[in-house]
Amino acid sequence: MKLSIRIAAPVMERLRRYHLAAGKHAEALSYVWARAVERKGEILVLVPHNAPLKLFAPDCFVRQTAGNVQLCPDVLNGMLIGFAASDFNCLINVHDHWFDETTTFSSTDDRDDLVFDRYLRRSFEPMLLQHPHIGPVRRIHNLSLVLAQKGVEARLVNTRSKRRFLKATKFSVIGEQFERPVIGIRGNASVADDMFTRQKDFITPDKQDMLANLSVALVGCGGLGSILAESLARCGVGSMLLIDDDELSLSNLNRWQGGCHKDIGQPKSKILAANLKRMFPALCVSALVSSLYATEAEQFLVGADIVVAGVDNDEARYFLNRLCLQYQIPYFDAGVDVTIEPDSPDFRARFFAIVPGVTACLECTQIELYQRQKTLDAYQDVVTAEARRNAGYVTEQPEISAPNVYAINQRSASLLGMELLNYICGWQPMATSILESWKSGIHERLSRKVFPEPPHPSCPICGYYAGVGDAEKLPRPRAFALAALQHLDGCIDVGSLSANASL
Ligand SMILES: [Zn+2]
Ligand SMILES: [Zn+2]
């Protein structure tokens, strides 16, 4: 069993200000209410930007010294009653080792964590069971987090389990820049890989390490996806999950990177995985031949550190927007658009990034990235949705396949590739959207510095659904849900209705 934590940067910043302020020479204690999601082999703890944070004034402590802190029992009980009444299932207690650069739990921490956990298991949980009017009965995950100046350590504590401590192996701070604080005492730096000699001056060893430990889910293994995958693998991303339900056809070969005649008829995600593995034997890559809306795809996506998409329809983008906010995953999207009317073509490349807790989302941004209402309306209507999917490509004219060419896919993939590296390395403020038009020569890069559009307070997607994890069901398209139901009755083949998530 592994433990991963995703915490929104604004929460981490407030915790750091409270616990690690310059000139502070006493340990402090705080609590955060969060949500834990249990997956096969993994527990994910999600702390969104709006997670309730309980910071205390000095007079709330009975004792507060350089290395020891204790909260007044009344204050602790008040906090616990509030937590009981909420629907959060993960209680995080945070303390600090302000005197350390990087740190690890001490034997005093072990004792304190076990005492607190016994109280939770023996008194708090039974109290919830006996008095369900106080708050929803649920299993409580007790997470202990210690902050040092540059590092952290976190673990789940459970005195009921054989394994009383489960230490976190991944700790991601989701902000304007992707951050992975050192967990525990810093070990030996990883061995330098000669493959990256020519990029070491701008991708420093710690960032190269971060890329190596990054798990990226790629949705859509079409023309765009085939280029994106190779680009990510070449710059050092260590683990990739490829999702697509389509097979390679002859008409894909004008733009499918690495595609050969002998591969025609094979699933795109599998061919791509095999090609990548041949190029980089050390790369950890898995392929899923499935619609984006299948539950197995959801399992894949939820475990990823970053979701990258090269899909051909806006419905998929809205679904990914919601999924990534719900599970706190940064979402990077590349798209292309070729228009051939009235007499000469134009080639447009688009990019956008949605970072939970930092940027506005696809449903509330003021930039009209995609035709929001039209898309949402179209997919509420089962017949239209089916026609659009069966056409293979989703355009305003469902009967016509969208025109496309390799060069424009390269253009769009390169926009995303650069922005993903920038997000990891933090060279300059991240871009939330880029629009390029070949004919008019427009290149518009909206960065967070120019257009710092935060999550909209009244947007349910980036507000209410932020970090709720499994507490809410993902809204699958009605047509897909209907097809899945009919498939159970043996009336209709789900395959013909599944979203064609590739270019
Ligand atoms: Zn401690
Ligand atoms: Zn929003």
Automatic annotation (TrEMBL):
Molecular function GO terms recorded: tRNA threonylcarbamoyladenosine dehydratase; ubiquitin-like modifier activating enzyme activity
SUPFAM superfamilies: Activating enzymes of the ubiquitin-like proteins (SSF69572)
THIF-type NAD/FAD binding fold domain segment(s): 198-433
Pfam families attached to this UniProt entry: ThiF
GO biological process: cyclic threonylcarbamoyladenosine biosynthetic process
Transmembrane feature ranges: none
Annotated InterPro entries: ThiF/MoeB/HesA (IPR045886), ThiF_NAD_FAD-bd (IPR000594), Ubiquitin-activating_enz (IPR035985)
Domain of life where this protein originates: Bacteria
Protein name from the UniProt record: ThiF family protein
Organism: Propionivibrio dicarboxylicus
Lineage: Bacteria, Pseudomonadati, Pseudomonadota, Betaproteobacteria, Rhodocyclales
